[in-house]
Specification:
The chain is built from 21 helices and 23 strands. With 555 residues, the chain is α/β, with parallel strands linked by helices. The chain has four domains: 190 residues, inorganic pyrophosphatase (n-terminal core); 104 residues, CBS-domain; 109 residues, 3-Layer(aba) Sandwich (Udp-n-acetylmuramoylalanyl-d-glutamate--2,6- Diaminopimelate Ligase, Chain: A, domain 1); 119 residues, Diaminopimelate Epimerase, Chain A, domain 1 (Roll). The chain is elongated. It starts with a helix and ends with a helix.
Length: 555
């Protein structure tokens, strides 16, 4: 595993991310990179809403890449980066590479990085034990360069890039008079220093002669070999040793496995590949990237010490709101402003939780504490998050610290808070062309209190008519969602920022009654369907609605 991959940490907010979740992830990743010099990358666990899109575009910031799951993947464990080899290398070279690298499997890889086959120590061992006919060298299309390398020979005549692809291999142990009876055209002949034997082999149209023990080859023989197209190789080894070694010059291509290879992509989750690895007796398995290029090898042993992705959570600490697979991740830090939730960690973590209106406020403080300069873009993102979460300081969650931070950041960002907030909220409440599903899940969170599970979505707008139109559309949609989902109740907050009032849509058995009890409100004359309630002064889901529902459920 490379050093960069070891240090990579994902900074991510909650599902169905809002402006605070996205902007805090971006800005905290920047802060951690500045402080540590390590790789911190912002990510998002859902689609970007219109308000957040406006903010990112306004300040020229790139949206974090989406992440559907942080389950441990093959790329997160140690991949043995065994270098791929050319399919034409000799068995001997492959064996030496295995011994030098202390590996039992070599991948054959093409020039463009594609996996072509695998050869193992066992495959090479079989070539020594199996009995082949004398033409196996040509059947394997052995390149002369392999023979030269294996025999540590010198090329006297011929082209080492050519192939020995016809004929058999034989040792010329008989006298020249007898040799002509068993040498056939295209054969490869192993012989000694006798001029007559060399001449006979060439005249019998051998494709190659191998002269042993470093014996001299006359200019006459060389010239004749050149004319007849016969390759001449000289080796320091004797005939016995050459006969033993020469099969090791065959290319691995002839023996490697090319079909039915079990490979994994570096994006595969290790939980999904364990059973496959356990069911096969292979020692190593190739790993490919998304384009099918070879990356390295992985074994069952690699999975034993596998660690999850390194994660920093911002703007949440509830498991139900966290990205899928968080239970497999290695959580390093949590930066949040919500109540304590259900995220569990294996080891102690850095956990900063403050009773302020926005996570971005905390991150602004951390920039100051670490004396890291805040640029215009970072200031704009942090300021936008605070404006969004505090509804321009109107939310009961807003504290003097939030207001002070936002105003200081607005100076750096070069924006006028009231004017900019109006544009941002208008962009966020622009719901034209959006489906009911897109609107409902734009800012949706799940909760549970005792045995009751419920979900709450919220839309904040400056346009009262737009909110009124949404009511009719969403009630029927919410009923369908509630029946199909595993939650007992669903609520939708239609929050008017100007009047600081929320009309709450309630779906599910006892949902409206629960809200009436929690807020001591009665149904209005206009709403006789019992499915919506007016909540004056209620604009915060986190600080006003959810705590009241929790108390009512437990009571």
């Amino acid at each position: 595993m490379t050093a960069e991959r070891k240090k990579k940490t994902i900074v991510i907010g909650h599902k169905n991310p809002d402006t605070d979740s996205i902007c805090s992830a971006i800005c905290y990743a920047r802060l951690k990179r500045a402080i540590t010099g390590n790789v911190y990358e912002p990510r998002r666990a859902g689609h970007i809403n219109e308000e957040t899109r406006f903010v990112l575009d306004y300040f020229g910031a790139d949206a974090p890449h989406p992440v559907e799951s942080v389950r441990t993947q093959v790329r997160d464990v140690e991949i043995h980066e065994i270098e791929g080899v050319d399919r034409n290398i000799s068995l001997k070279k492959a064996w030496n590479l295995m011994q030098d690298g202390n590996v039992v499997t070599l991948p054959a890889v093409s020039s463009d990085g594609k996996l072509e086959g695998l050869i193992t120590v066992g495959d090479i061992a079989k070539t020594y034990m199996n009995v082949y006919d004398s033409s196996i060298l040509s059947k394997a299309r052995t390149r002369y360069s392999n023979i030269l390398e294996t025999l540590e020979g010198s090329l006297l005549v011929g082209d080492e890039t050519n192939y020995f692809q016809e004929g058999k291999v034989l040792v010329a142990a008989a006298n020249p008079d007898m040799m002509e009876y068993y040498i056939s055209p295209h054969d490869l002949v192993i012989l000694g220093n006798r001029y007559e034997s060399q001449l006979c082999a060439i005249e019998m149209e051998a494709d190659c002669i191998i002269v042993c023990e470093g014996a001299a080859v006359s200019m006459t023989i060389r010239k004749l070999a050149q004319e007849r197209g016969c390759t001449v190789i000289m080796t320091p080894y004797d005939a016995y040793f050459v006969a033993r070694l020469i099969n090791q010059s065959m290319p691995i291509e002839y023996f490697m496995r090319t079909k039915g290879l079990i490979t994994f992509q570096d994006t595969d989750c290790i939980d999904d590949i364990r059973d496959v690895m356990a069911s096969k007796r292979h020692r190593d398995f190739p790993v490919l990237d998304r384009d099918g290029r070879y990356r390295g090898m992985i074994s069952r042993r690699n999975l034993l010490g596998a660690k999850g992705k390194q994660i920093v959570l911002v703007d949440h600490n509830e498991r139900s709101q966290a990205v899928d697979g968080i239970e497999n991740a290695e959580i390093l830090e949590i930066i949040d402003h919500h109540k304590l939730g259900t995220v569990e960690t294996i080891a102690p973590v850095f956990f900063r939780n403050q009773p302020v209106g926005c996570t971005a406020t905390i991150i602004y403080q951390m920039y100051q504490e670490n004396h890291v300069e805040i640029d215009k873009t970072t200031a704009g993102l942090l300021c936008s998050a605070i404006i969004s979460d505090t509804l321009l300081f109107r939310s009961p969650t807003c504290t003097p610290i939030d207001r002070q931070a936002a105003l200081a950041l607005s100076e750096i960002a070069g924006i006028q808070v009231e004017t900019y907030a109006g544009e941002m909220f208008a962009a966020g409440s622009n719901l034209k062309g959006k489906s009911n599903e897109e609107i409902f899940y734009q800012d949706f969170k799940r909760f549970s209190a005792g045995k009751v599970s419920f979900g709450v979505s919220q839309i904040s707008s400056l346009n009262a008519e737009e909110l009124k139109e949404l009511k009719g559309r969403l009630l029927d949609y919410m009923k369908k969602v509630q029946k199909a989902s595993n939650v007992d109740m669903l609520f939708f907050m239609l929050t008017n920022i100007l009047t600081e009032t929320t009309e709450l849509l309630c779906v599910g058995s006892g949902a409206a009654g629960l809200i009436q009890m929690a807020f001591h409100v009665e149904q209005t004359k206009e709403d006789t369907d019992g499915e919506s309630l007016e909540l004056p002064g209620v604009v915060s889901r986190k600080k006003q609605l959810i705590p009241a529902i929790m108390v009512a459920c437990e009571g």
